[in-house]
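re: that chain from earlier
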Amino acid sequence: TLHNQEELRRKDVRIGDTVVIQKAGDVIPEIVQVLKDLRTGKEHKFIFPSRCPICDSKVERKEGESAIRCTNPDCFAQDRERFIHFATVMNVDGLGEKVIDLLLEAQLVDELPDLFHLTRHDLLQLPLFKDKKTDKLIDALNAVKKISLDRFLFALGIRHVGEETAIALADFLREEQMDRTTEND
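^ sequence. v structure.
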């Protein structure tokens, strides 16, 4: 809930506060209450940025949404998070945040499909990459080339397409394919 400006204001949450949290949904922690009697006077209100701290582009909050987002589609931080999300959902062993940072900084990847075109030569140029680590990552990338459609759709990081929506989309697409196959018989 810390991304929601209205919620922070409504609950009067400040930097340095002691709070009570609970699990909301499956994982997300939610601030239930601010323990205002524990305030020391050093707490201060959080001011949401008007510019992206990474690329200095303007940030905006779309109507009906609570998150503030960078408006620059080429922002390094957005690219990085897209790759991290993909690697996590696809469970690519050896493709953690540090490796993603190396790949982006070396400009070896720009779009998600670029991951599947990485060569041993590309990876061996990176710091800390030796034969064993290189082979492990290449094998891990090859292993995730066959994945369920719903997991792949979720891994793409399409806005408003979480796990449940990805499952629903995959089911719908399978049904459509079956209907077309039946019609052609």
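The radius of gyration is 21 Å.
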